[in-house]
Amino acid sequence: MLQQLEKSKQSQKVRIIDADAHVNPSADMWADYLSPEFRDQAPKIEHGEDCDYVVFEGRRRKLNLISAQAGRKGEDFKMHGRASDARAGGWMPKARLEDMDADGIDTSVLFGGGPLGTSNPDLFKASFKAYNRWLADFCAYSPDRFAGVGYIPMQDVDESIEMMRECARLGLKAVNIPAFPMTPMKTLQANQSQAMALTGDASSDRSYADPEFDPFWKAACDLGMPLTIHLGGRTPRFTEPKWFLSDLLMSKFSMGEPIGIMIFGGVFQRFPDLKLGSIESGVGWFAFAANYMDETWHKQRYWVNSVLEKEPSYFWDKNIYGSFIHDRVGILTRNMPGAGNIMWSSDYPHSETTYPDSMEWIDKLFEGVPEDDKNMIISGRAMEFYRL
């Protein structure tokens, strides 16, 4: 009888889904995936005596490795180095599967390695498409274990809709948008263009609550395409030790701003099937945010002429999801309004990753949590959100 029970438990093994993992495509992939008219402008790798360098648009910069530190202890982290120092699973699917097997991960949802940090607006937009094509090919290596998230700009609505449709045709499971709309511009600052893909323009007069963006939300609903914002409210200054740690903290909390804009602006009221994921934001603040929004809405809704017909927490519960890495507080508040749609992630191969000890981290984080609740957070909710 005991053997039968053990076999039954094993047959019901929960599928572990990493709701936020990453790829780091090598700099030389752009020459293969950019459309032909841009390939001669693609970045190139040069090998120096001290480290590898990325040569692009007249600039020569050291290869940044902080997003590829999986498997190293904190005291061994290095900001710059050679491509061979980076975790191979960041751009090689076979190596990635080996790392997933070693870490107990069944399916990885894969975020970002684009767009290019260019000063050319046309190349900037083309690099979104190139990255999405590369990611689709990466995922095709093992489609049952890789789930890709495409990246699109939010400058022109019609253009963004077409890019989203292309992501759907490529088999990508979600699309990532900047936290705020991008301001269309004729020139870019190369050192800001990649950050803009995550943050957009927070000072813009345009808002995702504006009717201008309603066709995009409708298209997402029609496609069944979930949307994500990834650390977009504030981008940490990754290369500046003075600011890095405090920036990381604020990058979590600042994700509340785009969520608040969309909830208070009635986006989810107009499009009840729209799903938005706040990714790598942590979730321990969700319950506070939903409660605070409810209380302020009740008192302030009249003079601000609120369009909402239900409390903000209603929409947070129905439309907003979030991922975390090591957030015991978020797990413990999971039954509070606004805090239920949460998903575990490893953040591989970034420096915050739980790799190669993800199973130990899960055991520690979920100590005392009922098995059904735990299984939803490490598996079921990501399957629901990404429609796996």
Question: What do you see in this structure?
Answer:
InterPro entries: ACMSD (IPR032465), Amidohydro-rel (IPR006680), Metal_Hydrolase (IPR032466). Keywords: Lyase. GO terms for molecular function: carboxy-lyase activity; hydrolase activity. The chain has one domain (2-41, 86-386): Metal-dependent hydrolases (TIM Barrel). It contains 15 helices and eleven strands. It has helices at 2-11, 30-33, 93-103, 121-140, 157-169, 190-199, 214-223, 241-253, 256-264, 267-270, 286-300, 312-319, 328-332, 358-365, 371-386, and strands at residues 17-22, 44-47, 52-56, 59-62, 107-111, 146-151, 174-176, 227-230, 276-279, 320-324, 342-344. The protein has an eight-stranded parallel sheet, sandwiched between helices. It has a three-stranded antiparallel sheet with strand order 2-3-4, with no helix packed on it. Helix 5 runs parallel beside helix 7. The protein is globular. 43% of the residues are buried.
Q: Topology, pairings included?
A:
Layout lengths: L1 H10 L5 E6 L7 H4 L10 E4 L4 E5 L2 E4 L30 H11 L3 E5 L9 H20 L5 E6 L5 H13 L4 E3 L13 H10 L14 H10 L3 E4 L10 H13 L2 H9 L2 H4 L5 E4 L6 H15 L11 H8 E5 L3 H5 L9 E3 L13 H8 L5 H16 L2
Helix pairs in contact: 5-7
Keywords: Lyase
GO molecular function: carboxy-lyase activity; hydrolase activity
Pfam families: Amidohydro_2
CATH-assigned fold name? TIM Barrel
Structural class: alpha/beta
* Uncertain runs: 1-11
CATH superfamily: Metal-dependent hydrolases
Rg calc:
21 Å
Largest sheet: 8 strands, parallel
Multimeric state of these chains?
single chain
* Widest beta sheet: strand line-up: 1-5-6-7-8-9-10-11
Question: How large is the share of residues in beta strands?
Answer: 5-15%
**CATH architecture classification name:** Alpha-Beta Barrel
Mean pLDDT: 89
GO biological process, one term: secondary metabolic process
Pfam family, one: Amidohydro_2
Organism: Novosphingobium pentaromativorans US6-1
GO cellular component, one term: cytoplasm
